[in-house]
């Protein structure tokens, strides 16, 4: 298999995983208006938990001992990763959502993320600190026994499988009365409360479901890369997903797909092709962020609600007597 | 028709903000079926009282009873779910939801709001939505907003937003509607239209308590008036008698407002 196929397959995998990540943040912020500035922490939770539940306890030759080390088969580690992230989302939501307005919520989530980052980095007995997890088994490769290139193509099916299921979940949620009430809460939480909505519980659900998406995305990521360390979830990584959401359009799932395509497959990849600048290893990642930031500014300037903004919900109108002023439109032969 | 059982009892209610005693040992009651008004000069504590009754604020002391049930300190959504629905002084539509959606969200007891039904059994929510859409469209027709049904609520004019507030509140199937200045900033033609809607809804069985500055409307339509001043209940009765009450006249800065509105 050629290097080009491997390269494209790699990008497709990232694209699929970032779709899942963007939908989760879309549920939290796009639907329910929760300013979650530590979204990447839930992704990391999924990755770590999927890692330590699929790894064995003892790493041969390194002397590193991971917690759990259950060595569970696919797809259990991925699901556990999602559930662990959802549980963390529940805990943070219980603390932060109850009494806090959106801007304070943003500060609290940001702080919690930084605290957890330092904790995981410095508490080496948990996930081996800043070294992180390595040698994580590739999901299903114990069964299919594929080489690196072929497995990368195969993994598109694994990521695509979870992406398809989560698409259905996100789409049904958005179209449901629950999703509608979430959007009402986003628009004005006090009024939603005054209409008998338990706004705390509903926002908590958005937090938990969004975190679950992040956890599944993280679990798929560690299964794909085979390693994961705090470098992969520094605070700025949260804002890559925010950029995807805002460029694509909040409240629109296709917007998230377009956003992750533009940010992950185009803007982020484009900087790889710049001529290398010697003695400046930090320039490329910095350029990536500059390009994404510039893209975000351009979109917010010209399409403030994203390239694909939230679509108007429409309903089949079943009224017994058609009102007279609408009858002209219903006459046969009238083009739509 | 008013009956003997008070639907709303305000019992020695007090609320302080720092050095300001916004509501000060305030008591009154509203009978079921009434179209009642809460009037008083600016700063009398009317909006604070609405917030205390609806649960948006907690009182420092005193009690609120709704339908015989002590709801003091309840969260707003629990109070609303019992049938006490309030509107806000400024129109607060859900801006990026369509007019129709604004009504749909307001409907109580939606089975599609459960997480299981939303994700696993979407047909449950859709089935209920069909009934709610029909009901909401009829309501929008009655309030003259049918043509705007698929527009974002943000695009409505000020007057249309007032109509939407009322239509949306009705969709919640309230027993008691607490309207905070429903006529504020509304032209005379629309005032009459809103008054007509309120009168019709009252005949349909909804009890009203409105905070209102339009004394002409209060005199014409309301069968019970509570006057508040400096956080207290100053007087209660019908507007015609209250106009001659020296205390009420005094509270309205020498009686100019009351007298001129009477003229």
Mean pLDDT of chain A: 88
How would you describe the shape of chain B?
A: globular
Q: Identify the overall geometry of chain A.
A: globular
Q: Spans of chain A with pLDDT under 50 lasting ≥5 residues? A: 325-336
Number of strands of chain A: 2
SS-derived structural category of chain B: alpha/beta
Q: In terms of quaternary structure, what is this?
A: heterodimer
Separation, N- and C-terminal Cα atoms of chain A? 50 Å
Distance between the termini of chain B: 30 Å
The whole-number mean of residue pLDDT values of chain B reads: 91
Q: Strand sequence of the main sheet of chain B, in spatial order?
A: 6-7-8-3-9-10
Secondary structure: number of strands of chain B: 10
Q: Can you count the helices of chain B?
A: 11
* Total separate domains of chain A: 2
- Pattern of helices and strands of chain A: HHEEHHHHHHHHHHHH
Largest sheet of chain A: 2 strands, antiparallel
What is the rounded Rg of chain B?
19 Å
Secondary-structure topology with pairs:
The complex is a heterodimer of chains A (336) and B (263).
Chain A: H1 3-31, H2 39-54, E1 56-58, E2 65-70, H3 76-96, H4 102-122, H5 124-127, H6 141-144, H7 148-175, H8 177-187, H9 189-194, H10 199-225, H11 235-248, H12 253-270, H13 283-302, H14 327-330
Antiparallel strand pairs in A: 1-2
Helix pairs in contact in A: 1-7, 1-10, 1-11, 1-12, 2-3, 2-10, 3-10, 7-8, 7-10, 8-10, 11-12, 11-13, 12-13
Chain B: E1 6-17, E2 20-31, E3 35-39, H1 46-54, E4 61-66, E5 69-70, H2 76-81, E6 84-86, H3 99-106, H4 115-119, H5 122-142, H6 158-171, E7 176-180, H7 188-203, E8 207-211, H8 215-221, E9 224-229, E10 232-237, H9 239-242, H10 246-251, H11 256-262
Helix pairs in contact in B: 3-6
């Amino acid at each position: 298999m050629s290097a080009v196929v491997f390269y494209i397959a790699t990008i497709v995998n990232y694209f699929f995983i970032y779709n899942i990540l963007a939908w989760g943040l879309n549920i939290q912020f796009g639907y329910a208006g929760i300013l979650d500035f530590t979204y990447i922490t839930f992704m990391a939770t999924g990755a770590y938990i999927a890692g330590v539940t699929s790894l064995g306890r003892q790493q041969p030759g390194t002397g590193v001992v991971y917690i759990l080390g259950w060595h569970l088969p696919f797809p259990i580690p991925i699901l556990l990763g999602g559930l662990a992230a959802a549980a963390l989302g529940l805990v943070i939501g219980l603390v932060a959502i109850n009494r806090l307005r959106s801007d304070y919520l943003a500060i609290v989530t940001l702080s919690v993320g930084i605290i957890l980052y330092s904790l995981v980095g410095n508490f080496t007995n948990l996930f081996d600190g800043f070294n992180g997890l390595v040698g994580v088994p590739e999901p299903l490769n114990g069964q299919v026994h594929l080489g690196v290139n072929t497995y990368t193509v195969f993994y598109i099916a694994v990521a695509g499988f979870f992406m398809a299921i989560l698409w259905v979940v996100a789409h049904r949620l958005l179209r449901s009365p629950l999703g509608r009430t979430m959007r009402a809460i986003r628009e004005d939480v006090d009024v939603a409360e005054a209409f008998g909505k338990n706004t705390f519980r509903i926002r908590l659900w958005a937090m938990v479901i969004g975190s679950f998406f992040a956890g599944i995305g993280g679990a798929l990521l560690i299964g794909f890369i085979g390693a994961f360390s705090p470098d992969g979830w520094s605070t700025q990584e949260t804002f890559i997903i925010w950029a995807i959401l805002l460029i694509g359009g909040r409240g629109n799932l296709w917007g998230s797909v377009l956003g992750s395509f533009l940010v992950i497959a185009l803007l982020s990849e484009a900087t790889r092709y710049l001529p290398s600048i010697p003695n400046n290893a930090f320039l490329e990642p910095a350029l990536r962020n500059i390009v994404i930031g510039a893209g975000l500014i351009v979109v917010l300037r010209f399409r403030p609600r994203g390239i694909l903004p939230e679509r108007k919900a429409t309903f089949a109108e079943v009224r017994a007597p058609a009102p007279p002023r609408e009858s002209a439109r219903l006459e046969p032969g009238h083009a739509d | 028709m008013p009956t003997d059982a008070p639907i709303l009892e305000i019992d020695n209610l007090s609320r302080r903000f720092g050095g300001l005693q916004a509501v000060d040992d305030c008591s009154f009651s509203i009978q079921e079926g009434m179209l009642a008004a809460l009037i008083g000069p600016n700063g009398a504590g009317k909006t604070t009282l609405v917030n205390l009754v609806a649960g948006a604020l907690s009182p420092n002391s005193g009690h609120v009873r709704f339908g015989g049930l002590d709801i003091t300190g309840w969260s707003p959504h629990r109070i609303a779910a019992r049938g006490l629905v309030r509107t806000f002084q400024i129109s607060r539509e859900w801006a990026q939801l369509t007019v129709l959606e604004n009504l749909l969200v307001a409907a109580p007891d939606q089975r599609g709001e459960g997480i299981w039904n939303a994700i696993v059994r979407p047909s449950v929510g859709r089935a209920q939505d069909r009934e709610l859409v029909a009901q909401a469209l009829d309501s929008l027709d009655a309030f003259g907003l049918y043509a705007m049904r698929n527009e974002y609520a943000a695009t409505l004019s000020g007057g249309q937003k007032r109509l939407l507030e009322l239509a949306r509140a009705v969709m919640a199937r309230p027993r008691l509607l607490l309207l905070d200045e429903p006529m504020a900033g509304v032209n005379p033609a629309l005032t009459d239209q809103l008054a007509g809607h309120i009168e019709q809804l009252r005949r349909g069985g909804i009890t009203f308590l409105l905070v209102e500055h339009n004394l002409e409307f209060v005199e014409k339509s309301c069968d019970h008036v509570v006057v508040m001043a400096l956080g207290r209940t100053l007087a209660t009765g019908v507007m015609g008698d209250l106009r001659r009450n020296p205390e009420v006249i005094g509270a309205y800065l020498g009686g100019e407002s009351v007298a001129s509105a009477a003229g």
